[in-house]
Write a structure and sequence with these properties.
By secondary structure, the chain is of the alpha/beta class. It is 43% helix and 14% strand.
């Protein structure tokens, strides 16, 4: 709940979320973020030890990417850079 409040207040450029959280699960948090105008278009990357295909497909409907723990930090850094600074579309 605190993360939702802070996301509304600070409008981050990108949000990293785990699926397993104390109050709400990460997927519920992501759905709420997607419904709010201030965070609707904020990129969301999930990170989780849960790695089933069902979990990944469900998250993919709402998030921009999914990383399984332990994280590949180089890949995560590249993905964050891609989401924050997308290359212009080729004409």
């Amino acid at each position: 709940m605190e993360a939702l409040s802070q996301a509304r207040q600070f409008k981050p450029d990108l949000i990293l979320l785990d699926i397993l959280l104390p109050d709400l699960d990460g997927l519920s948090v992501c759905k709420i973020l997607r419904r709010q105008p201030s965070t609707k278009k904020t990129p969301v990357i999930f990170m989780s030890a849960l790695s089933s295909e069902v979990t990944k497909r469900t998250v993919a409907l709402h998030a921009d990417d999914f990383f399984t723990k332990p994280l590949n930090l180089e890949r995560l850094e590249r993905r964050i850079a891609d989401l924050l600074h997308p290359e212009p579309a080729a004409e």
